[in-house]
Design a protein that fits this description.
single chain, 95 residues, elongated
């Protein structure tokens, strides 16, 4: 995990990026210690969270997993629904 991604100015850049990802890839990262691929991963993952995981999207200083992991997870709404279907103190997820 690249801790530099959690710096305030980097988080600000990620959360307010509205440019072209392709142009960013060609231009490169504004920070020497952050490879552009890591920066793009954070931007793309955050964008996926906007509707699917709004609590994550609204969180400050979050290090997002790869976009594929976000795509494969249940939405926040679905997770809340599934959680409402069970009762008890413990649960084993064997999927």
């Amino acid at each position: 995990m690249n801790q530099s991604l959690l710096r305030a100015e980097v988080q600000e850049f990620i959360s307010h990026f509205d440019g072209d990802i392709t142009q960013l890839a060609l231009k490169g990262s504004p920070w020497e210690e952050i490879p552009v691929r890591e920066l793009i991963q954070q931007i793309e993952s955050q964008n996926k969270c906007e509707e699917k995981l709004p609590t994550w999207y609204a969180a400050k200083n979050i290090y997002y997993p790869p976009k594929l992991h976000i795509e494969q997870t249940s939405s926040e709404i679905t997770a809340k629904y599934k959680a409402s279907l069970i009762e008890g103190e413990s649960l084993a997820d064997i999927t």
